[in-house]
Amino acid sequence: MAGFDPQWFATRGFGGHGAALGMRYHAHGDGWAELALPYDERLIGDRASGVIASGPIITMMDMATSLAIWIKRNAFVPHATLDLRVDYLRPATPGKTVIGRGECYRITRSIAFVRGQAHDGDPSDPLAHVAGTFMVVGDVAGMGLDRRIEP
Question: pLDDT (tens digit, 9 = 90+) per residue, 89-117?
Fold first, then answer.
């Protein structure tokens, strides 16, 4: 993608919270992106069980769905999370990397609609589903807000 390359962005753009959590690029396609959250003892929410806390998984899913929006728009343009509902189905398996896939399935003039899931090795056995909306800035070409990030 000439306008927005999520792999390039992920290797250079995951500063701050994403870098602290150890998030990594995993894969992407037309309107979707996958990130990986490697197991790290610093992310454990319950020492007795060794299960990763919910916060890092929510953060990864917010970023995966954001990447999906930028892929869909083919540009790194402003947007903000309005709502991201997370339904936990089961705890992550201790010791395993969590994969988060976000998909942007529709964009209107002001709202992007996203969905996704997180799993720890088997997409048919997800640990969480997400659904959300993001506020997006209007016409990229007409508003001078196109901040393309290219290698």
Answer: 999 999 999 999 999 999 998 999 999 99
Instruction: Return d(Cα 69, Cα 66) in angstroms, integer.
Output: 5
- The predicted model gives 31-57 an average pLDDT of 94
Best CA proximity match to 23, nearest among 75, 62, 69: 62
Sign of the C-alpha dihedral computed for residues 131, 136, 140 and 145 taken in this order: negative
Kindly report the number of other CB atoms within 10 A of residue 51's CB atom.
17
- For 143, the token pair is 């508003």
> How many CB atoms neighbour CB 143 within 10 A?
10
- For the entire predicted model, the pTM comes to 0.87
Question: What is the separation of C-alpha 108 from the centre of its chain, rounded to a whole number of angstroms?
Answer: 20
